[in-house]
Amino acid sequence: MGMKTKIPLIKPFVGKEELLEVKAVLESGWLSQGEAMRSFEKELGTYLGARHVVSTSSCTTALSLAIEALRLKPRSEVIVPDFTHPATANVVSRAGLAPVIADVRLDTYGISVDALKRSITSRTSAIIAVHPFGHPFELDEVRELASGRGLELIEDAATAIGTKYKGNLIGKSGRAVCFSFHPRKLLTTGEGGCLATDDDGVAELARAMRSHGEVKDASGSHFVYNGLNYRLSDVNAALGLAQLRKIGALMTRRRKMAKVYKDGIVADRIRATPPIEEAYGYHTYQSYVVRLDNSADRDRCKSRLKEEFGIETQVGTYSLHMQPAFAKCRGSALENGSRLYRSTLTLPLYHTLSDVDQTFVISALGKVVGRDPGSN
């Protein structure tokens, strides 16, 4: 028997504001596709600076809608990063397209522009690039590459609500930017997501496809497309409304806690590399993912933190080409994705995590990972 969990990986930050919004929805008697959903989409669009926000049941369904709304060529190839959650590539396979796996940068965990260039063929129709853990990928370079080759760009911004690239919020502009509002995210609706777009046609088709392919006009409803139910309920949207109204405070607190971790890891000379923030980026630290020294056994460190200290951690994320579901996908030179999959660790990070708790986590990490000579 291991030690009881003292510090969990995550605790969603919800309170009376969320209760009041959900109560109003329950009392309204309108639980789906009602005023709360419309208000959430409108306020989120205003916050992001996006022309359209189409709420969905998850980021996965938002990505699926993006693929359909962009009308990608049947049986074409879509490039995805190696170091990401399987959802990024699952939506490609489920659409009858072929995922092509490209390597990532070792420092930011974002997709490598050089690897992208090497992965493009005559069969490529799109790139799905991930903003990893709250840090933006090299958006200008990837956009320029995509437009220059006639490719669509889908931004998997599952972890990037509030993230900025060169001063602009992710989602402010783009044909298809997909967010997640899962409980581990900075802003949560319980389960949920959205597609943000500045393209009227993409928004119109996505709205129809998320609701069984239905299009309404003066004469009534018409089922024009073969869509499915990807809708976000008003109960979930109500949570999102309350969360959105305090997102500034949530981000400020998270960045402060990230600095505590970084300063502690560096000061104690712990054999782990903290996440970086490039000059072009504003990191929201949806997850605080460190890269352990090559000498460390990540899985053993993870187990020891839980068993000996009661600290819950998680792997950074997954290397797609090392998962059985993607073993047959095309990809080459995926060394960084493999290394990150084996060496990254997500530390606890949530709004109510105290300085004392963080100091305890830093101390425990040093004990299980080790410190460089000369440290205290």
List keywords for this structure.
eight-stranded mixed β-sheet; four-stranded antiparallel β-sheet; alpha/beta; Aspartate Aminotransferase, domain 2; 12 helices; 376 residues; single chain; 17 strands
Structural write-up:
This protein is α/β, with parallel strands linked by helices. It folds into two domains: 16-244, Aspartate Aminotransferase, domain 2; 248-369, Aspartate Aminotransferase, domain 1 (Alpha-Beta Complex), CATH 3.90.1150.10. Helix content is 38%, strand content 18%. It has twelve helices and 17 strands. Strands 1-9-8-5-4-2-3-16 form an eight-stranded mixed beta sheet, sandwiched between helices. Strand 2 (77-81), helix 4 (87-94) and strand 3 form a beta-alpha-beta unit. Helix 2 runs parallel beside helix 8 (234-244) and helix 10 crosses helix 12 (355-369). The longest helix is centred in the C-terminal third of the chain and has 21 residues, at 247-267. The chain is globular, with a radius of gyration of 21 Å. The two termini are 31 Å apart. The mean pLDDT is 96.
